[in-house]
Design brief:
ND/Mrp_TM; mitochondrion; 15 helices; single chain; Complex_I_Subunit_2; mitochondrion inner membrane; about 325 residues; about 80% helix; mainly alpha
């Protein structure tokens, strides 16, 4: 446990090294240090997990080697071909579609704490690098990846895979902000991590692998509301934090690239649809609990919760 905590501090140090430099060599070095620090965090002493660590190491090493070679060549002659290879290496590291296969392979064998690190802090260095080397024509690939990740999640109920595909969708928003030279992507990533942490915390506590009512029934009322609200926030439903970060991103992008916003909004609506579809059973369970429970609740709390539920059902009705 102590060793894993020390490795987490090493990850934070590599992030600070990367964001404090403008040298491509330091970027590469910080990514390699970050890779070697994160692998022990993934370890949970199972054979399947060992396979996942090997896959993660190979993919990250390949993308780092591609980044090193392309950056060196781009430094020598500033060719756009090598600039596109730099971007390609970073997109592989970020697991953007169609390079997401490796992260889906390791989804079932890493614990939720490692998954949280993988979907939040591990994205900081690649996103910072791509903000320095972004190649504008690749914006089309990013938008398609954002849309396809939302469509791919429609029939899934595994929480880890849902969170991964949701993360790919949110990455698309951040990279679109980076493409338009808007620094709000840093705030977006911090807000996304704040939304993701309670979900990971609850799923770890109750050992939830699937979005099923039998799993969610183990939670108390406050935890159930927190769990539901955070998923709604990931989808960008008002009045949650996820809505405000997306509406701010839309406002900033509207000044430069309006067609881009349409695809991002469609992706967000698809996310909301399958979140509603999965969580509808828990809404009914919650109302049944309020009806049959003999516990004394604060009237103000009940009023706020019922207004919250009414808002969810109204939007759910409009989606169907």
């Amino acid at each position: 446990m102590f060793f894993k905590k020390m490795m987490m501090w090493m990850i934070f140090i590599t992030i600070l090294i990367a964001i404090s430099s403008n040298s491509w060599f330091v970027f590469w070095l910080s990514m390699e240090m970050n890779l070697m620090s994160f692998i022990p965090i993934m370890n949970n002493n199972t054979i399947k997990n060992c396979y996942s660590m090997v896959v993660y190491f190979i993919i990250q090493s390949f993308s780092s080697s591609l980044f090193f070679f392309s950056s060196f060549q781009y430094f020598l002659n500033s060719s756009l071909i090598f600039l596109s290879f730099i971007n390609l290496a970073i997109l592989i590291k970020l697991a953007m579609m169609p390079f997401h296969f490796w992260i889906m392979m390791i989804a079932n064998s890493v614990n939720f704490n490692a998954l949280f690190m993988l979907l939040s802090f591990q994205k900081m260095i690649p996103l910072f690098i791509i903000s320095k080397f972004f190649y504008s024509p690749l914006i089309t690939l990013v938008v398609i990846s954002t849309l396809m990740s939302s469509i791919s999640a429609l029939n899934l109920k595994q929480i880890n895979k849902l969170l991964i595909l949701s993360s790919i969708s949110h990455q698309g928003w951040m990279i679109c902000l980076i493409a338009k030279k808007i620094n709000f992507w840093i705030t977006y990533l911090i807000m996304y991590s704040m939304i993701l942490f309670p979900i990971i915390n609850l799923t770890t506590r109750y050992k939830m692998n699937y979005m099923e009512m039998s799993n969610m029934s183990k939670m108390n009322i406050n935890e159930k509301l927190l769990f539901i609200s955070k998923f709604m926030s990931l989808g960008g439903m008002p009045p949650f934090l996820g809505f405000f970060m997306k509406i701010t991103a839309i406002y900033m992008l509207m000044k430069s690239h309006f067609p881009l916003i349409v695809f991002l909004i469609i992706s967000s609506l698809i996310n909301l649809f399958f979140y509603f579809k999965i969580l509808t059973s828990s809404f009914f369970f919650y109302i049944k609990f309020l009806k049959n429970s003999k516990n004394n609740f604060n009237k103000k709390t009940i009023f706020m919760n019922m207004n919250y539920m009414l808002l969810i059902f109204l939007i759910n009705f409009t989606l169907y």
